[in-house]
Here is the input.
Amino acid sequence: MSLTSHSAGYGLIVGPGGTEEEHDTETCQHCNSVWVTRSTNGDRVTHSGGKCMVCMQPICPKCIGQGCIPLEKRLDMLELENKLKIERQFDILESRNRIC
Ligand SMILES: [Zn+2]
Ligand SMILES: [Zn+2]
Here is the structure.
């Protein structure tokens, strides 16, 4: 039933009074968050979202204008940062040893 791309989801919520609310969701390819793109419930906050012109993937309102940093790249960067931190600590220890 989803109307948009592969990352889109579809949900149906049945309220206490038997009222049905249908909504479509998208998954942001930059931060992996999910937002509602359209809903039959007029009270629900919806956003059509955006599209990253670098990786051509759907992105959430928060990531619009943030530049392209796909999730995988972010994870790589985190790993690299941790590695650098460990190496730096090692350097500090070594230089201490040299002083003593
Ligand atoms: Zn995002
Ligand atoms: Zn991107």
Remarks:
- Residues 28, 30-31, 33, 59-60, 62-63 surround zinc ion (ligand 1) (CB under 6 Å).
- The chain is about 30% helix and 25% strand.
